[in-house]
Amino acid sequence: MKRRAALLGLLLVALTGAGLAWVRLSAREAAPITSAEAAPLPPPGVGALGRVEPASRIRRLNPPGGMAVTRLDRLLVTEGDRVEAGQLIAEFGDLAQKEAAIAQAEAQLAQSRAELARIRAAGRPEEVAAQRARIDALRFAESSARRDAERAEALVPSGAGGAAPAERARFAAARTAAERAEAEATLQRLLVPRPEDLAVAETEVLSAEAALAKARADATLSRVTAPIAGTILKIYARPGDQVGSDGLLDLADLTRLDVVADVYETDVPRLRQGAPAEVIVPGDPRRYPAELREIGWLVRRTTQAGTDPVAAVDARTVEVRLTLSPEGRAALERRAGMQVQVSIQP
């Protein structure tokens, strides 16, 4: 009996434990799923290799005249100098010769303009007055010669005068009339210039102006000016040198720095303009914030050289540009071209 009672007690305890376990399991299954458990994991960010580059790009300045330019004569800047847009940077050896050509063209233009002004003004007042006085004298002489001719003609029929004197009188009257007509034409030229003379003088002025413009354009080929305001990064030629294939110098505006990164083409759909990012500089424990500003339009082979020996060297990427924060710009101002790592939030 005692053994049977013990077995019944053990069975009752086992049933009670199983019931409690079933109740707990049912309560767990019936409990609602929390939002933390139901929310999907956020998409991963986009990582890429990049390089530090000024927002203005690095401008490599070359001689404007190409291979025809002579040696470098004057270099007016040094590395690290800040220059303004349009500031004179360098001059070449043939500048003096071209400036002399400018002076010659200016003198020729002044002469052509003076000739045009003379033709437009026609005669001076004293010349006009003298010509009018001569015309009056010729008119009087013409009138006297004509009367003489008429008297000589009247004497021929009566035999008081010969035919030869009458003919000479007619010739003198005609010559005086011709001289008067010539003097009047001269006066007209003094008062109003001939259109053909005016056209020739105006054409000569235009030709002289074109020659001066060409001389000035040639002189600009012997000078190098800054296309933008920026900082001189590197100088490749010194006074006395011929500028080679490396160019004259590198110029960039360092007030705004970008990070140019190559993002794999499969990661581009997860990018958006304005997305926050972080720039990791090798050897620097800090992370500099940045903002995605531009997404390129062209898929190409990657231009960043990574250190992973198993990475695909012909991976196809899209170039993106990120604007560095002010603290990042201050830290990387002297590191244009440095390779960095970029992490862009999706």
Determine the fraction of residues in helical runs and give it as a percent range: 40-55%
Beta-strand segment tally: 13
Taking the alpha carbons of the first and last residues, their distance comes to 75 Å
Quaternary structure classification: single chain
Give the overall shape, derived from the CA principal axes. rod-shaped
Strand content: 15-25%
Run of helices and strands: HHEEEEEHHHHEEEEEEEHE
Q: Strand pairing plus helix content: what structural class?
A: alpha+beta
Mean pLDDT across all residues, rounded? 81
Rounded Rg: 50 Å
Quick one: biggest sheet? Answer: 6 strands, antiparallel, barrel
* Poorly predicted sequence stretches spanning 5 or more consecutive residues: 13-31
Strand order of the largest sheet: 1-9-12-11-10-13
The helix count comes to 7
What do these coordinates show?
The structure is a single chain. With about 350 residues, this protein is an alpha+beta fold. The chain contains 7 helices and 13 strands. The strands form 3 sheets. A 6-stranded antiparallel beta barrel has the order 1-9-12-11-10-13. Strands 2-8-7-4 form a 4-stranded antiparallel sheet, with no helix packed on it. It has a 3-stranded antiparallel sheet with strand order 3-5-6, with no helix packed on it. The longest helix has about 30 residues, at about 125-155. The two termini are about 75 Å apart. Mean pLDDT is about 80; it is low at about 15-30.
